[in-house]
Amino acid sequence: MRRLLQAALLPDIVRNALKISLLVGSVLNIINQGNHWLQDHQIVWWSLFLNYLVPYCVSSYSAAKHELARNSINGHTK
After folding, report:
1. What angle do CA 31, 21, 63 make, to 5 degrees?
2. What is the DSSP letter of 10?
3. Using one digit for the tens of pLDDT, what is the confidence trace for 23-42?
């Protein structure tokens, strides 16, 4: 678990996960809250936050798992 967290915090993984989160989270917010914005209703902040957090977590987890598997195959240990 510690190695997975270390891999997830690698600068390249964080940077890519943030990019993916920004794109996917924005699309999810438009889908989930678009009507609220168009009708001048209040933004549901926890939903907005989760719409960005979930893609970030999925992307960084997937990339970290890939990084660990790649290092394992190549015989690298960290």
Report:
1. 135
2. S
3. 999 999 999 888 777 787 88
